């Protein structure tokens, strides 16, 4: 499926199979011999909160604070859908990127956090407290 999506000048925004091994293509090791996986998730119970607030960061920070083994997350505008990636040998760890405007900073897209950013460590409960309370 991925190869078909990458045909004809990438009209479906798919990368080549080789660059997706151990990512979107789970059952083939990457060029370094490691396994990995990427999945797109929509949390249906989060949708009402997201539609009301446009705050995707509540879900991102909750996952960041509670799920240790992810390598990367990328958020998208529709339903706060996101890709989450795991790797046996991550080149990066706990990176959050978004194509959605950050309601707290007003930035249209970019990194919410990654190693080296001031907000990377510690808890981020203030960002998801309201969502969890509902």
Report on this model:
The chain is α+β, with helices and mostly antiparallel strands and 134 residues long. Helices cover 29% and strands 18% of the residues. The chain has 5 helices and 5 strands, in the order ααβααββββα. Strands 1-3-2-4-5 form a 5-stranded mixed β-sheet, with helices on one face. A hairpin with a 6-residue loop joins β2 and β3 (82-87). α4 (57-66) crosses α5.
The counted number of beta strands is 5
Q: How would you state the average pLDDT, rounded?
A: 88
Query: What overall form do the CA principal axes indicate?
Result: globular
pLDDT < 50 runs, ≥5 residues: none
Provide a count of the helices: 5
> Helix- and strand-based class?
alpha+beta
Instruction: Please tell me how large the radius of gyration is.
Output: 16 Å
Secondary-structure element order, N to C: HHEHHEEEEH
Largest sheet: 5 strands, mixed
Order of strands side by side in the largest beta sheet?
1-3-2-4-5
Residue fraction in strands: 15-25%
Helix content: 25-40%
Cα separation of the termini:
39 Å
């Amino acid at each position: 499926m991925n190869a078909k999506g990458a045909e004809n000048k990438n009209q479906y925004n798919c990368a080549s199979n080789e660059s997706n091994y151990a990512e979107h293509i789970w059952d083939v090791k990457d060029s370094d011999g490691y396994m990995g996986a990427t999945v797109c998730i929509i949390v249906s119970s989060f949708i009402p909160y997201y539609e009301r607030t446009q705050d995707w960061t509540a879900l991102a920070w909750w996952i960041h604070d509670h799920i240790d083994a992810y390598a990367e997350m990328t958020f998208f505008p529709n339903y706060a859908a996101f890709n989450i990636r795991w790797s046996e040998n991550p080149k990066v760890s706990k990176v959050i990127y978004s194509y959605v405007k950050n309601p707290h900073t007003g930035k249209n897209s970019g990194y919410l956090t990654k190693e080296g950013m001031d907000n990377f460590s510690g808890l981020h409960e203030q960002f998801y407290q309201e969502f969890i309370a509902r």
